[in-house]
Amino acid sequence: MTKLKGALLASALILMGGSVSAENGVKPQYGGSLEIGTVYVTISALSWDPADFNWKLNHDTGLFYEQLFAGDLSKSKKAGGPYNFIPDAWLATDAIRGELVEKWEWKQDPLRVEMKVRKGVMFPEKPGVMKKRELTAEDIVFTYNRLNTSPKKLLAYFDHVDRVEAADSHTVVFYMKHYFAEWDYRFGWGYYSAIHPKEVADAGANNWKNVNGTGPYTLGEFISGNSNVYVKNPDYWDKEKIGNEEYKLPFVDKITYRTIKDEATFITALRTGKLDMLEAIRWQNVDSLKKSAPQLQWNRWLNQSGTFMAMRIDVDGPFKDIRVRRALNYAVNKDEIVKAYYNGNAELFSYPQHPDYVGYFEPLDKQPASVQELFKYDPAKAKKLLAEAGFPKGFTTKVQVCSCNPDHMDLLPLVAGYLEQVGVKLEIVPLEYGAFLSAMTSRTHTAAYFMNNGHTNPTTTIRKSFVTGQQWNPSGWSDPEYDKKMDVVYREPDEAKRQAMLREMTTEILDKAPYIWLPTPYVYSAWWPWVKNYQGELRAGAVRPGPIYARIWVDQELKKKMGY
């Protein structure tokens, strides 16, 4: 860095007075662009079609497809509220706002939810696909029916819904078979509830050139493995109140998600200002970045995904025996992983429930002894159990891991080293993300499968991972009695009772050890000071950052003064 550039940086910091925000009198600016390395910086878009039921869809489409509900960002810590908007798919009841619907009401006989669709919301013109027109209740009905009849629909996902009808052009009614605790998440702000028009489906919804929604941006360009480029939608309906004024959204003209598979490259891109924001940074890179780019702003958060090695119990092999599964847990020194591998930047126990889920999470010291001992290093006990299970000399098994995850590529060999000390050898098979995900969803994955999985929310974290037949159930766990308990949870309207049930179910599955339960690391987000109205928020719905990015503006003068 030249002396001149260093002087510019210093003067810019004085001008900033730290991080300038709307709250201290600085007005939002329109224009400019944002280059973002998102939480999923290593993974390109996997699908553009909501009917594909792909977990990452909201991340890539959430700037142009909207939903019935979204996170209420006026309740964020940045705005003086209680919520950090970090969880991958958890919104507190009082942190949900209507997005495409203005209001909703439960009614009885028959049990239903009546929703008033927001008027004046427009689909922009998309040459070759559709003319500009207003969103109606029929678009919501179409979206629901298309998802509900998709061959890729998750098992039983909408089974609580009897039917969805448009009472008039701006009233949509969801008729329910019974009360369901996740009704608003499943088709309101969840992973698979992006409202899209029939014209896009007819043109081919998985072709990025055809997509078209009501959101603040349109998709201008997609280069697989490189970038998603979003361009401001001049017809967008929403506004943001800042101070005593309302501002039309969005602020920034162009937003680009960069796909960068190499960790060193995306760290360098942030350090040199080629990225304005980088949302997921391992602790190993933080100190060097703070020294080389001291102007960066930071947020630290406990990863919303649990790390584990799943052991398949749905195929013949040693993992069918609980003694083997527990033995492998004893064989791994998890406390040493926290202290030595993560340098203290991890929590020993925070999965499958996340500590953020107050009322649902029960800490390790409150768990029964049989669960607590799974987190204690005891190789002698591991060897004893393996011998009792008929494996006195251990065994060899293959384990797949995603090459897209630098942490896992470093951590898995360490886990393999621990297991080898008790005679269990892992043959590590790295896969690109597409092949890695496909192996699990097609049930062709190896007997051991090393991954992390989003906590999602307090209910889904249990359902998707441990209920029979679920797609995100890498161990193939199946217990009819456990499945029945899950059904009871969903039908219970009293949240306190649901919390107690889920605490019990969490303890039960921990004890059965279908996974080697591993520590959960802390992750860092960083952004340059010219990124305004932002404090590290990541999601305003299920893996959906779109509403957050639409409210960011760029202080272009500051950026120039800092030499970028």
Task: Provide an overview of this structure.
It is a single chain. The chain has 564 residues and is α+β, with helices and mostly antiparallel strands. It has two domains: 3-296 and 528-561, Periplasmic binding protein-like II (D-Maltodextrin-Binding Protein, domain 2, 3-Layer(aba) Sandwich); 305-521, Dipeptide-binding Protein, domain 3, CATH 3.10.105. The chain is built from 18 helices and 25 strands. Strands 1, 10, 11, 14, 15, 16, 18 and 23 form an eight-stranded mixed sheet that branches. A five-stranded mixed sheet has the order 20-19-21-17-22. Helix 12 (406-420) links the parallel strand 19 (395-402) and strand 20. Helix 8 runs antiparallel to helix 11 (379-388) and helix 15 packs antiparallel against helix 16. The radius of gyration is 24 Å and the shape is globular. Residues 1-23 have low confidence and may be disordered.
Short overview:
The chain has 564 residues and is α+β, with helices and mostly antiparallel strands. It contains 18 helices and 25 strands.
From the N-terminal CA to the C-terminal CA, the straight-line distance is: 12 Å
**Beta fraction of the residues?**
15-25%
What CATH calls the topology of the largest domain is D-Maltodextrin-Binding Protein, domain 2
Low-confidence stretches: 1-23
Strand-pairing-aware structural class? alpha+beta
CATH class of the largest domain: Alpha Beta
Q: How many structural domains?
A: 2
Characterize the biggest β-sheet: 8 strands, mixed
Shape category: globular
Radius of gyration: 24 Å
Q: Any idea what the CATH superfamily of the largest domain is called?
A: Periplasmic binding protein-like II
What CATH architecture label of the largest domain applies?
A: 3-Layer(aba) Sandwich
Q: Tally the helices.
A: 18
Helix content: 25-40%
Mean pLDDT: 94
Strand elements, count: 25
